[in-house]
Write a structure and sequence with these properties.
heterodimer, A: about 300 residues, alpha/beta, 5-stranded parallel sheet, 9 strands, B: about 425 residues, Urease, subunit C, domain 1, TIM Barrel, 2 domains, 4-stranded mixed sheet
């Protein structure tokens, strides 16, 4: 079986078998990361471009290292957010990259649906590295990979996601992916940071952290951005962390040994207290390593299409 | 000059002939004989009054790359409209008599023959601060005032405009959206916005402003017209107000009857419009509102845009749908073919009521009314192909949809201005 899609835009339409294939391919890549010479020829002769309209350190670096470990030619384009409106159109940029022989375009964009627009106008495979408040499918895949490595499965698990769900593309992709894999998702956020009709996606929603994490196998914090306070979605970071932060007391409501995760970058003392973030249950640093393995797996699967 | 339309089917009258003389309907009877008239055989076709559109954007002056008065009025004629009211968000803004007169003059001299009635800006520059020269614009031919796409957030200014405008017979046409509640939303807030990760606009944004306008209208005992109602709650507010005798009138648009936010799932910017496409329950309420008289009129909100303004990220895309050339089929399908209303009811909401709201002698097939007439084939099946639009704006989410009902010929003042060549 091969990966069915030309692009990875969303986890909404990725099937269970495909996710399993990505995760098992990532297992092999993880081994490679452990070896002394991190180099394969899987992407030799392929060219990979990261096209980022938003700042990013770990996602971009992760993709870049993944493509380099696999011997591709890679290039990075940083476009400022203002160039989205004033510069070349996204479609024109995509066509240009296509003509230069790009095999994979990895795009991060401040607006939801932008990777879909790009993908419908280019021959290159498009990977969504985060679009607006919509999705961040590779983050969800690396989260699932991390969970599976530790707990051995995804089916039947309860994952509690706490934080700014409304503006979180991480939450949305995780909901779609985890559901496909048979896990249950509980969300907790202030009502002003919870999108409407969330329950219709098949999740349970809470405003008390204790209730959301009750019996959870995994507790995931989401980054809260300062701009959201300026927009008036909550009164202060202080009050936010008092009522919606994950601390060791609240973590006790989860199953013993539940994993603590965060997509980063973390605001210590806001989403998670430092003792929780650095505690025994935390796999936050490992998530980053999983990210490289999962992205290697994806680049491999997306560029291998048609080779068979 | 005489026009004799033979053997067409008139709503409520069956097969009849219609004679127009000097631009006015002179006779509606069976078997009219007239030696010196131009004769049109309408056998198998339905004869209707030309539609009257209370709300469109002709983009002229200033945005001729989107549309101009020539292309816009040709598209209107092809869509079965014989009178259209164009909004003031041109460049320069139609907030003074000079721009109003330019629009009227250009429509008369180089338009397709469709009557163009400008709607003047309510405020200077559409800024929502101080009243535009409403009296001057009325004298130059404007028929109403509106800041349309720029909702009037200042309730006191709205009050002043309603009072001052009334002295010149100018009713405020209000685009009801509270821009704070819109909060940069780009589609209806609901399951689909959550699914797509696009920022949603609560329906309350529209309903809060409708409620405010109703309260002002009731308090001042002055008329107000609510533009493009899109929500069930909006219909209910207007229904209750009318029951109390408030002088409120209202319109909805064909795309709210024929489209829902399910169409946004592809992120196609053709679906972006303000207010946004809503839900099936809203469609039902709007249809009910048109049937029971809560909503007076259908207006297109024809909003042509250039391709480059739509082939971009959803958040960046211009809002609006090119509506003239699909309105008839979408309305006939959703209202008449779906058995919600009779053809006579359709004439009431598409022609008679809007003509009454702007005080024009058209919109009815009666002796003495203007001979603004369309011939239509109610059952002709055709596929919406925006590339064939006469409008410069090809932006429609209905491209590719099979529809029933087509305008075959359009007459203004007894003179043919459009004939379907397809």
């Amino acid at each position: 079986m091969a990966f069915k899609h030309k692009d990875l835009l969303s986890l909404r339409d990725v099937e269970r078998e495909e996710i399993e294939m990505i995760l098992s391919t990532a297992d092999s890549m993880w081994q490679l990361l452990d070896s002394p010479t991190k180099k394969t020829a899987h992407l030799q002769g392929k060219s990979i471009v990261t096209l980022f309209y938003e700042n990013s350190t770990r996602t971009r670096m992760s993709f870049e290292l993944a493509s380099k470990y696999m011997s591709s030619a890679s290039a990075n384009i940083s476009a400022s957010a203002s160039s989205v409106q004033k510069g070349e159109t996204l479609i024109d940029t995509g066509r240009t990259l296509d003509r230069m022989g790009t095999d994979v375009i990895i795009i991060r964009h401040p607006m939801s649906g932008a990777p879909h627009l790009l993908a419908s106008h280019v021959n290159a495979a498009v990977i969504n590295a985060g679009d607006g408040v919509n999705e961040h499918p590779t983050q969800a895949l690396l989260d699932m990979f991390t969970i599976k490595r530790h707990l051995g499965r995804l089916n039947g698990l309860k994952v509690a996601i706490v934080g700014d769900v409304m503006h979180s593309r991480v939450a949305r992709s995780n909901i779609f992916g985890l559901h496909t894999m048979g896990a249950e998702v509980a969300l907790c956020a202030p009502p002003t940071l919870m999108p409407v009709k969330m329950e219709e996606l098949g999740v349970k929603t809470y405003t008390r952290v204790e209730e959301a994490v009750e019996g959870a196998d995994v507790v995931m914090g989401l980054r809260i951005q300062k701009e959201r306070q300026e927009e008036g979605n909550f009164p202060s970071l202080r009050e936010y962390s008092n009522y919606f932060g994950i601390n060791s007391e609240r973590l006790k409501y989860a199953k013993p040994g539940a994993l603590v995760m965060h997509p980063g970058p973390m605001n210590r003392g806001v989403e998670l207290t430092s003792d929780v973030a650095d505690g025994e249950q935390s796999v936050i640093n490992e998530q980053v390593r999983s990210g490289v393995a999962v992205r290697m797996a994806l680049l491999y699967l997306l560029t291998r299409k048609g080779v068979q | 000059m005489k026009l004799l339309i033979k053997n067409g089917t008139l709503p409520g009258l069956g097969v009849c002939d219609l004679l127009a003389e000097d631009g006015v309907i002179a006779k509606i009877e069976k078997d009219i004989a007239c030696q010196d008239a131009q004769v049109v055989d309408a056998t198998g076709l339905t004869v209707l009054p030309g539609m009257v559109d209370l709300h469109c954007h002709l983009r002229d002056p200033g945005y001729e790359y989107k549309e101009d008065i020539v292309s816009g009025t040709r598209a209107a004629a092809a869509g079965g409209f014989t009178s259209v009211c164009c909004m003031a968000n041109t460049n320069p803004v139609n907030d003074n008599a000079v721009v109003t007169a330019y629009i009227v003059h250009k429509a008369e001299t180089s338009g397709s023959g469709v009557h163009v009635y400008p709607i003047g800006a309510l405020s200077h520059g559409l800024k929502g601060e101080t009243m535009a020269e409403i009296g001057d614009m009325a004298k130059a031919g404007a028929v109403a005032i509106s800041d349309d796409g720029k909702p009037v957030m200042n309730a006191h200014l709205m009050r002043l405009a309603m009072e001052y405008g009334a002295a010149f017979g100018m009713t405020v046409f209000d685009h009801c959206e509270d821009i704070n509640l819109v909060n940069k939303g780009v589609m209806n807030e609901g399951y689909n916005s959550t699914l797509l990760g696009l920022r949603g606009t609560t329906r309350a944004a529209e309903e809060v402003q409708i409620a405010r306008d109703i309260v002002l209208s009731e308090t001042l005992n002055l008329p107000v017209h609510i533009c493009h109602v899109s929500t069930k709650g909006g219909v209910e507010l207007i229904r209750q107000a009318k029951a109390r005798g408030v002088k409120v009138t209202a319109e909805t648009a064909p795309h709210y009857l024929a489209g829902t936010d399910d169409m946004v799932v592809s992120y196609s910017a053709a679906t972006r419009v303000n207010p946004p496409l809503r839900l099936a329950a809203d469609q039902e309420a709007l249809i009910q509102g048109l049937c029971d008289g809560t909503l007076d009129a259908i207006a297109t909100d024809h909003a042509p845009h250039h391709r480059d303004e739509k082939e971009v990220e959803y958040n960046l895309a211009a809002s609006g749908i090119s509506g003239f050339e699909t309105a008839f089929a979408l309305c006939i399908e959703t209202l008449v073919h779906a058995h919600h209303m009779t053809l006579e009811d359709f004439v009431r909401v598409a022609c008679t009521n809007p003509a009454r709201i702007i005080g024009k002698n058209c919109g009815e097939l009666k002796v003495g009314k203007d001979a603004d007439i369309i011939l239509a084939d109610l059952n002709q099946e055709w596929c919406v192909d925006s590339r064939k639009f006469l409008s410069k704006g090809k932006n429609t989410p209905f491209h590719g949809r099979m529809v029933h009902g087509r305008v075959k010929e359009t007459y203004v003042g007894g003179k043919r201005i459009y004939r379907d060549e397809d």
